[in-house]
């Protein structure tokens, strides 16, 4: 099959590799139709990382079932499916209670099967393949990993109706966070540096948009919250922005409020100075949020699929670019240079 593999310099090469095979009776093989490029993928772009050399990447995907094992009863050949790529080992204490996003072997496990979106075929256990309603396209479904991340963060936050919320970052996760918060009755301010992203946030219902380079962000949240600060701040930028955005989040939140850390970090120790005395004296809660799994008895991936089907979440407004897999390097360049390209969500048609 055709696949995009990581090169020694962190880009991609298109090559032929062996098709994956079903590893158990309850496994499924699907033909990938659409795969997204997310912030995690971009953090590895053009970085020389020996552990990823020759790997097939990508974890936001949807496709069509082409083969099933004899014990499969959830899907059938020909079904259009959302493919969930958060796959734990299945045996540890966390997996046993459906907290598989916390599995110690999460990344090695998922990269061996379902998190190989930049290729023609993927395989995995049947419980990670979710049938799509006719109204949901492959491109729509490829955004649902992102929205499930945002939903998991909202569940952790305890957000309730009427909350004053600030969101830092108007990429796909931040915009998903915005739609979910608005659907829950919150009043929402969103912060970014890119005018096209803020314009989209306004169209999606933001009560206040703030250009980080042109406005006083702290004054804006005080004006929206009776001078208290936000009840909840979602940090959705992550990456190289985190040394600036995490301290900002702690300044935007009110006393007794919550900061939810949604954006990702790079590997290894990272020193980010914070005003710890003020945080402690104000009893501000810092909540790390990692990917998604279950909320009570509900799979968060299926919850966002339901919300999309009911029109609560929007997708087409976010999909700004589509590329064939053969042009994956161009697609990554487009997603990386958002200011020039005005990209929001970039999809690869596999």
From TrEMBL:
Pfam families in the record: ADH_N, ADH_zinc_N
Taxonomic superkingdom: Bacteria
Keywords: Metal-binding, Oxidoreductase, Zinc
Domain Enoyl reductase (ER): 10-344
SMART domains reported in the protein's UniProt record: PKS_ER
Cofactor: Zn(2+)
GO molecular function, one term: zinc ion binding
Family, per entry: Belongs to the zinc-containing alcohol dehydrogenase family.
Classification via PANTHER family: L-THREONINE 3-DEHYDROGENASE
Protein name: Alcohol dehydrogenase catalytic domain-containing protein
Organism listed in the record: Sphingomonas zeae
């Amino acid at each position: 099959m055709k696949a995009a593999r990581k090169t020694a310099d962190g880009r991609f090469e298109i090559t032929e590799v062996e098709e994956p095979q079903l590893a158990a009776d309850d496994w499924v093989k699907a033909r990938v139709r659409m795969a997204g490029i997310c912030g995690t993928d971009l953090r590895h772009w053009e970085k020389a990382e020996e552990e990823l050399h020759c790997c097939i990447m990508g974890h936001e995907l949807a496709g069509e079932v082409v083969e099933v094992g004899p014990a499969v009863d959830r899907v059938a050949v020909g079904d259009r499916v959302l493919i969930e790529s958060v796959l734990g080992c299945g045996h540890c204490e966390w997996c046993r209670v459906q907290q598989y996003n916390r599995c110690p072997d999460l990344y090695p496990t998922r990269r061996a099967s379902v998190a190989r979106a930049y290729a023609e075929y993927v395989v995995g256990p049947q419980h990670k393949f979710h049938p799509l309603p006719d109204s949901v396209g492959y491109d729509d479904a490829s955004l649902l990993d992102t929205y499930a991340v945002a939903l998991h963060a909202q569940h952790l936050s305890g957000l309730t109706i009427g909350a004053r919320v600030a969101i830092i970052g108007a990429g796909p996760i931040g915009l998903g966070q915005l739609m979910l918060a608005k659907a829950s009755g919150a009043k929402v301010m969103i912060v970014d540096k890119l005018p096209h992203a803020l314009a989209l946030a306004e169209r999606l219902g933001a009560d206040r948009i703030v250009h980080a380079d042109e406005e006083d962000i702290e004054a804006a949240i005080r004006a929206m919250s009776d001078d208290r600060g936000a009840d909840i701040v979602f940090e959705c930028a992550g990456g190289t922005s985190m040394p600036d955005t995490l301290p900002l989040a702690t300044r935007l939140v009110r006393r007794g409020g919550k900061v939810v850390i949604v954006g990702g970090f790079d590997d290894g120790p990272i020193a980010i100075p914070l005003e710890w005395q003020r945080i402690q004296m104000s009893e501000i809660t810092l909540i790390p949020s990692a990917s998604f799994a279950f909320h009570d008895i509900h799979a968060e991936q299926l919850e966002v699929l339901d919300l999309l089907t009911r029109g609560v979440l929007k997708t087409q407004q976010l999909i700004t670019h589509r590329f064939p897999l053969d042009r994956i390097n161009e697609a990554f360049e487009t997603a990386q240079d958002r200011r020039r390209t005005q990209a929001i969500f970039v999809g690869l048609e596999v």
